[in-house]
Amino acid sequence: MAAPFATLPGETRGRLYREEESAHRSPFQRDRDRIIHSSAFRRLKHKTQVFVEHEGDYYRTRLTHSVEVAQVARTLARVLELNEELAEAVALAHDLGHPPFGHTGEEALQGMMAAHGGFDHNAQAIKIVTRLEAHYAEFDGLNLTWETLEGIAKHNGPVVGEVPFALAEYDAVHGLELGTHASAEAQVAAISDDIAYNNHDLADGLRAGLFTLEDLRGLPMIGACIAAVDARWPGLAPSRREHEALRRFFGLLVEDVLATSRARLAEFAPRSAEEVRGLGAPVVRFSEATFAELKVIRGFLYRRMYRHWAVQRMRRKARMVVEELFSTFAGAPELMPEEWNACAALGETARARVVADYIAGMTDRYALQEHRKLVDPMVKG
């Protein structure tokens, strides 16, 4: 049974291009399926989360991260009596706009695009699902429902101040009410992202040997999880010990969000999905205490993982690859594949945006291959 503030598929605001809906799938199921079958979703398997994809087969990629986020989102949505299918669709699509090499690639593109409207991965995700996925006969993009598009654009909260050009461009023809919070389902997708990466970044850092479980003993929440595991299973094998500690940490985050969100929903008592949008504050969130403890954990990860010399060395290489690709293609667009190089006839800003779209769609390995072809005279290109 759905809560009164859940998003009901029968009340969707529909799609930009009218279609006959499926007899067997809800509109949000259909959105999810289109996202999963998109080219951009498949490319996530070779895009960086923290470690560049060729550094090891066991580290998270954007694809495995997105699947983990969707799994958490469905759990939270089910318990809070929200629409699981909408939460899942937003979760699966939330990282579609990320360029190669994770946040390093995004920072590099932001710098190269500073004079041309900037670059933002959420706005790029909207551009992908509304324009760049060009497979259907009757429209560009995936023609997703308004609610899924709103969730992709606003899952991190209202878009205030200067709106990224890619998002502003679509909002002008299909307004997404950027100044309000998104649905509770989109909020669930956003916090599921936080739960997933706080847990798996610790797991990946342990696997990479950047720190040990003993280094985590002094951290809030995790220290207690390690102690509980050691008390129950003294002498447990290291890999099992790490797994048991982190799964308890994961569970604590989920339970905290559920308890806090239930309390906030009871306090605000929204009577519809529209009322959730108009509250002026999120209804799905961590408690203040857990949020403060996560800041300590993120600080540890920043010092010991994100700023580790080996990670920094790869980040520097990745930034150089993206910047050199952009400079080369912006100056000589004829070097891009045929379906992209027609931008040579465009003005500087329009051309730069096409180049950014091309680079943002690359996987880590493709970006490295393209860079090698351009700079190594011995590599056939």
Concise structural overview:
By secondary structure, the protein is mostly helical.
What features would you describe in this structure?
By secondary structure, this protein is an all-alpha fold. It has two domains: 26-309, Hypothetical protein af1432 (Orthogonal Bundle), CATH 1.10.3210; 311-375, no CATH class. Helix content is 58%, strand content 0%. The chain contains 16 helices and no strands. The protein is globular.
The total of helices stands at: 16
The CATH architecture name of the largest domain reads: Orthogonal Bundle
| Biggest beta-sheet profile | none
Tell the overall outline.
globular
Order of helices and strands: HHHHHHHHHHHHHHHH
Task: Kindly name the structural category.
Answer: mainly alpha
The residue-averaged pLDDT reads 93
CATH topology of the largest domain: Hypothetical protein af1432
CATH class of the largest domain: Mainly Alpha
Beta fraction: under 5%
Q: Level of helix content? A: 55-70%
Low-confidence stretches: none
| Rg of Cα set | 22 Å
Attribute tags:
about 375 residues, mainly alpha, Hypothetical protein af1432, 16 helices
Per-chain topology:
Elements: H1 27-36, H2 39-43, H3 62-79, H4 84-93, H5 102-112, H6 121-132, H7 146-154, H8 165-171, H9 184-207, H10 222-232, H11 238-268, H12 273-277, H13 288-306, H14 309-331, H15 348-360, H16 364-375
Helix pairs in contact: 1-4, 3-4, 3-9, 4-7, 4-9, 5-14, 6-7, 6-8, 7-9, 9-11, 9-13, 10-11, 14-15, 14-16
